[in-house]
Amino acid sequence: MTAPEQRRRRGGRLCHCCKAEQPFCWSCTCGFAICPACFADNKWGLSNGPTWICPDCGRVHLLE
C-alpha cells in the first residue's frame, strides 16, 4: 500500500453529533468527526471564521 492510500479512509466516517455514517466529515487527529450538516447547526460554538476548534481536545483547524 502506498503512502496516499494509507492516509485515505475507505468508506465514510461516523459523525459524533448525529451518530450517522457520512461520506465526508470534518475531523480532528484526536478522533472527533462532525458532518457538514451538524457543523452548520453548531457553527456558532465551533468556528470563528476561517478556523474551527475541536470541542474534544481544543486543537484549531483551518477550514480547507
What would your notes on this structure say?
Helix content is 23%, strand content 22%. The mean pLDDT is 85. 12% of the residues are buried. With 64 residues, it is of the alpha+beta class. It has three helices and six strands; from the N terminus they run H-E-E-E-E-H-H-E-E. The longest helix has 6 residues, at 36-41. It has helices spanning 3-7, 36-41, 43-46; strands at 13-14, 21-22, 26-27, 33-34, 51-53, 60-62. It has one domain. The strands form three sheets. Strands 1-2 form a two-stranded antiparallel ribbon. The chain starts with a helix and ends with a strand.
Topology:
Blueprint: H1 3-7, E1 13-14, E2 21-22, E3 26-27, E4 33-34, H2 36-41, H3 43-46, E5 51-53, E6 60-62
Antiparallel strand pairs: 1-2, 3-4, 5-6
